[in-house]
Amino acid sequence: GSFYAGGAVMIGYFVNHPLYTPPSASILIYGGFSAFVLGEVFSLLCHVSLARVPPSTIPRGFLFNYITCPYYTSDTVAWIGFHLATCTAGGWIFMLVHTIQMIKWARARHTAYLKQFDGREGRAQYPRHRHC
After folding, report:
1. 85 close to 23: Cβ distance less than 8 angstroms
2. CA-CA-CA-CA torsion sign (10, 11, 17, 21)
3. For residue 125, which phi and psi values (nearest 5 degrees)?
4. How would you write 72-87 as a 3-class SS string?
5. Coil, helix or strand for 114?
6. What is the pLDDT of residues 51-89, one digit of tens each?
């Protein structure tokens, strides 16, 4: 929605501004692009894995063995990579706000899973070693 549209406008303004200068260090450009691609591929794999999980089942496999919401983590890695490659003020602001929002959503999902899968009355126990 409007969150991503606002971010796109803010990033687009800085990247397309006549005074914009891309990063001179190729490590930022190639490293950032690599992180972006890696984050997007991991995000896709997370969503494919999650789509195969039956409702009311604890997600398992891939990054789900370690993190409650690996798709948020992967998305954040992709945005960090994007902004390393472009280095715009608006992009860094968007990435910071985006990361804060992803952390809020991940904490809420983690808390919901802990309540839903509490190990009582025959319900599965949510893995305690997973981080939000």
Report:
1. yes
2. positive
3. -95, 125
4. HHHHHHHHHHHHHHHC
5. helix
6. 998 888 999 988 999 999 999 999 999 999 998 988 888
